[in-house]
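Board notes, transcribed. Complex of a protein with 4'-deoxy-4'-aminopyridoxal-5'-phosphate.
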Amino acid sequence: MTGTTLDDYTDRYARRVRGMTASEIRALFAVASRPEVVSLAGGAPYIAALPLDAVGEMLGRLGAEHGATTLQYGIGQGTLELRERICEVMALSGIDASCGASPDDVVVTVGGQQALDLVARLFLDPGDVVLAEGPTYVGALGVFQAAQAQVAHVPMDDQGLIPEALEVAIADLARAGRRVKFLYTIPTYQNPAGVTLSEERRERVLDICERAGLLVVEDDPYGQLGFETEAPRPLRARRREGVFYLSTFSKTFAPGLRVGWILAPHAVRDKLVIASEAQILCPSAYAQAAVTTYLATMPWREQLKTYREVYRERRDAMLDALDDMMPAGTTWTRPGGGLFVWATLPDGLDAKAMMPRAIAARVAYVPGTGFYADGSGSGNIRLNFSFPSPERIREGVRRLAGVMEQDIAMRRVFGQVDRPGVRRGRPGADTPGPDLA
Ligand code: PMP
């Protein structure tokens, strides 16, 4: 050991660690969680909508009466009982035996997040490219970055991912000699954009990927949280092969249990289990028993309805408040389900630069840049409506509108608004940006 000391870690980091930085959301948590701040920044479900006493009693019994199994190790793939229940849950969305879904091909994971990590471990080499919606889930960006893969964004409009843009992206990357492994997509009630891939586009996206030899990783935590109509059937309900279906109980039951799953093509299920065992040995037996017992003994379909009703009311509160108070030039999506609205700020406003003023005005949001791998998104913000009450949502939007009005006024005074040729805060202006309004 010459020249370095043992508290000098930087030079020792693996290459994949070098790009690791705290996400925008993590960095914001400390301030956004102060009680005086209306946080529209998080993504937490409204757990108080659960029958917490009954769930608590159930959890107590799992330890007291079934501790010999629930506190023991289990098998890497997850218990058969839970995998069977998961198939019942998926059948509600149209993924059933008729399209080859079977408990045998389900791998239980530690939330949807481990499911993403497993798929990345299985398929991504350093330098590989993942195609993903722009914007996309911040936690997926972290996983792909850790795998030293690059993300190429494909723009969306209010019908979701644009198939023509997907074709262009695939052709461009092929021309550049890049290896694209899969399309990562959240087709239903997308996080963060709140848009849903239309029925007609689902087939086209699948056809395009099939023709290009791309796998599809379908991330679907929100599909059962639709407010008005049923969501279009998932991609996995339309294709048996080539589609990995990922979901979680985090939004439909409780994220604290950390239970998710992958429905994998049969040929790769074993590899997923081996990769998962290397990572975690096995998912928590206690958490799996909790979810299994919840699904077997409690009215989970009713609970889904309750979540939908609570979130629909909050979505409406947010859309009404935005309609009433947002400054001219602001646009936003009108989600049919899920937890988020994605807003585009008037030209010239920078979501990140505005953040300290928003916090000072006691409101928090997530700047759009967190949801892109390429620095785009500074003209966007993500707003969460699942956790705050309708009154807090309205108050939060009121405070946010005030901050935006102030920023607009300041920029007018200093002559920085609408300078021709200058698209402030949009570093990704050369690539097609999302037009989600
Ligand atoms: N995928 C998406 C699109 C998500 O929004 C989330 C959670 N916000 C996850 C995966 C991870 O969920 P989990 O809590 O089950 O790990």
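The first strand starts at residue 38 and ends at 39. The mean pLDDT is 92.
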